[in-house]
Amino acid sequence: MSDAVLTIENLSVALPSWADRPLAVDSVSLEVLRKEILCVVGESGSGKSVMAKSILRLLPAPHVRVAGGRIMYEGKDLLTLPPDDIRAVRGGRIAMIFQEPMVSLNPLMTIGRQTDEIIAVHTRMRTPERRKRIIEVFRDVRLPEPERILRSYPHELSGGQRQRVMIAMALALEPSLIIADEPTTALDVTTQAQILRLLKELQDRHGTAILFITHDFGVVAEIADRVAVMHRGKLVEQERVGDVLLRPRHQYTRALIAAVPSLTPRRVAHGSPSQSAGPLLLSVSGVAKTYPARGGQFSLSRRRVSAVAGVSLEIAKGRSLALVGESGSGKSTLARCIVGLERADHGAILLEGSDIAGLSRAELRPYRKALQMIFQDPFASLNPRWCVADIIAQGPIVNGTPRKTALGEAAELLRLVGLDPKAAARYPHEFSGGQRQRICIARALAVKPKLIIADEPVSALDVSVQKQVLDLLDELRTSFDLSMLFITHDLRVAAHVCEEVAVMKDGLIVERGATTDIFAMPRHEYTKALLAAVPGREWQQNVS
Amino acid sequence: MQGFWQRFLGNPRVTLSLLWLGFIVAVAAAAPLLAPTSPFAIVSKPFSPPFGEFLLGTDSLGRSLLAGLIHGARTSLLIAIIATLAAVAFGTLIGSVAGFYGGIIDDVLMRLSEFFQTIPSFIFAIVLVAILAPSAYSLVIAIATVSWPPIARVVRGEVISIKSREFVQAAIVVGQRDMAILVGQVLPNALSPLIVTGSLLVANAILIESALSFLGLGAPDLMSWGFQIGAGRAFLRDAWWLVTVPGVAILLTVLAINLVGEGLNDALNPRLRDL
Questions:
Q1: Residue-wise over B92-119: b if at least 16 C-beta within 10 A, else e?
Q2: pTM score
Q3: Does A372 contact B at CB distance below 8 Å?
Q4: Is A332 on the interface with B (CB under 8 A)?
């Protein structure tokens, strides 16, 4: 017991009356030991973030408040500490790292000043000492050229650098506990791998305890010493990491682990001869797209940034291709060019032999039926003022199907995507993220397309829901005889649904081929890096 | 939607304002019944004080102040509402086209609206009424002309933010026509700020109408509150009620509309107050 840095006893947090359940956190007890990384795992809505926020009393009062329990830290109950004392604990003794570093940093202050502020508030160090300390921690988190970073503003850094700055800020006062709330969820896979390695290494060196909140068991496998699994506000399991990963006891834990998409690549379907598939459905050649660079507000430079720099790819009928790359690699721009939301500067886009590149919106209309898109954010992609039936029937109605027939088909489609046809009369806000994505899929299918472009369709969803949606897409692909261009940053997802993979980096395709080949023998350096960065890789290989 | 009505009507300021506005609208609608004689008819000796033969007394020409007030409510409300509807319609058209198409169209339309905004609006309204000759129509035109630019700006901003949302992109991908997307997908989601701005514009329109009538630029054959104040202004020290009563009517009505507009804003954007 003496080894515990933080002890949470019977913590309950009450939600406001209009929430879906009375308690966000329901009598949770756990302890974070010295020098360990405790991962708290759960889906969104499981109460893990609320639990973490209540430690530093950051709950949005008065609606969400602690209903009972104690949080013991250094012999004191944090929940009853006077405001001045809790301020000294925040940042000083317990530091917190948030999910989105861009939002957590003040855009109008240089990185140096923001870091300096934290040290100045909590210590009596003088300016030169503080500066020395800042440079020291920046070195510690492996930020290149600390002197330059000091003078930069948050927008001048990359996502990974910003998160390093956040970690540096957290470390600056040598806290005994760091609470990290999904610190790598907003980052690319390779950056995520670096940050995870950094956290682990820092924790080894400084012996800081880390309470790490995540929804991804891959991440857990990478860094955790112990794991606590939360489900609907309750703690269902708390064990050493090896036990949970290899012998999960609670069925919820088992379900969560089973939902992690495996790295085992998908075979070419039905043993059909590998490359000589059907006729080409989509053929993209030499597509390029540049945007005017955003200089300073008054800059006169006409520099242009190249998003897609001459990409060619083909998709045969009935095939699915995964376009994998990190944010900024141009994969979404390419998709938007193909589907006609952007106009490519150069190149040809042949859909069943006819070039659709450069057509205006009106000219594209006849081709729309063959080509549909599923968007990333299921919360933004459904019009909140339309009922589900109208949303799904919209496409057929626009294309001339009588309204009544279209609404009938919509009900049928709802059944196909695994929703109750009665849902047709309801509005999008009544559905969860996964259900909304099912509605989006139904909308895309409504016009009976030949090709579906799915732009990160599961990256906004919980891991457990991801798998269901991916399986649905897979199933519909065969029953509707669809081809798919599947855009994702997650190689595990790509492996799950596509027989072919194209890896994109800086606007170019660096490697493409059958998923099995690429996973077995990646040739390009970047592909190798991507594969190596997949969280929980070793654990999965051990399991399988 | 139930939550909206609860939030909206649960606000005591809104309830009181709505009661007052309901009363004014009822009076305006029933004006010919409540005061069957023309408000311009001379019914008694001039300057008879309130609570005598006539409830609110008579003005310098012996016209009943109450009858004028009742018919004035009709004029003020009608002109203000019609002018606001015209301004909202025009402003929405300009704003949504500018926001949806962007580029040169946006530039041209927004420079146009700025041109209107740079001219002091009341002076502009005076000039318009003077050119068009005072009448109910020219009042509506003048008020609408000076009121549409803020609407256009609000709508443009909303349209720009909504058109980048994925459901609009999905509608494009499905092949909906631009106008159908604008009317069916984008504008319904821009409704709440539009309703709030529009309701506040009604109050503003009443003020402009009263001020124009006060200056004698109102519709000559229609009694209005501003006209009553203008006519009673010279006798402020002898017959204070001639100015005060219509003044208070304007004050309360404008205040009530503003409070309702504010209440609408709070009820339509509940998060602003909760957090």
A1: bebbbbbbbeeeeebeebbeebeebbee
A2: 0.79
A3: yes
A4: no
